[in-house]
Amino acid sequence: MNDTLSFRIAADPPARLDKALARDVPEAAALSRTRLARLIADGAVRVAGTVADDPKARVAEGDLVEIALEPAAEVEVGAEAIPLDIRYEDDDLIVVMKPAGMVVHPAPGSPSGTLVNALLAHCGDSLAGIGGERRPGIVHRIDKDTSGLLVAAKTDLAHHGLAEQFADHSVERAYLALCHGVPDPAEPRLRGLRGVSFEPGGVMKIASQIGRHRHDRQKQAVMWAGGRHAVTRARVLEPFGTAAALLECRLETGRTHQIRVHMAHAGHGLLGDPVYGGKRRIAAGTVGEAAARAAAAFPRQALHAAVLGFVHPRTGAALRFDAALPDDMQALLDALRG
What we know:
Layout: E1 3-8, H1 17-24, H2 33-41, E2 45-47, E3 50-51, E4 64-69, E5 73-74, E6 86-89, E7 93-98, H3 115-123, E8 133-134, E9 137-138, E10 147-153, H4 156-167, E11 172-180, H5 188-191, E12 196-199, E13 203-212, E14 220-223, E15 228-240, E16 244-251, H6 258-265, H7 284-287, H8 289-297, E17 303-311, E18 318-322, H9 327-337
Parallel strand pairs: 5-8, 10-17
Antiparallel strand pairs: 1-4, 2-3, 2-4, 6-7, 7-10, 9-10, 11-16, 11-17, 12-13, 13-14, 13-15, 15-16, 17-18
């Protein structure tokens, strides 16, 4: 059975039906322009009692608009009862701690066992639907072998509200990373490296374009023409001699592999990174035999999404979450400290 959304056209309406609906549809309905266009084409919109299937049709102030909204449809992705580390959940959204090794969204190479499969099973009927489909709204992703905090929407309202915050870079995201070497503001090499600068407090800022590598389509690369603007800030929290450092990395933008690409560009690739870390190894003489072995054996990029902060899209409340290092990164950090 369809639900009907009713409202009236406000004063001075735009000349076209689609633009009038985009302006006057209740915000709580969270209907995007794309979905409104689809509803018009499907004959689901009535104006003053008559079906309006022409997006260019004229409307008048006070016209009653009725939109028939179909129940959210089930999607083909299967629900799987995979345990989740849930940090927060309400009717609009859910925040989870994604473990390293879990893919966020199903893809040809990973059709099951993903975070979306787990969310479908956990949320069940509490998913009000995203874009007319009963599915979680993924507004950001974390690489498969990166651990950390991730928020997913359960309603259209939350999906649009969170997406806007990620688009305008107002979401707080901080990562903990272990890198080769210690970024030093006094190092001439870094001072002269394109895209790298230093801000007060010794914060290293890396700004560039990031896009697909020209010769390896599985990788991203720093570039100066084309690609998408990307900014990362990295601060040394704890150095381990000159061999390695614990960093706090903050994202101004959120591009694929951004921290990994930017740190490799700066000459401080992440420990364990199989794609951007190269074959660099920590010498036993700098941190000790045990720490060098632990670093060499670490099976993934040493990167963890530790802080996530945003404004709740319905209530306006400021939410902020912290996630401690997972056991494998903590063990590596302890080895370096030892």
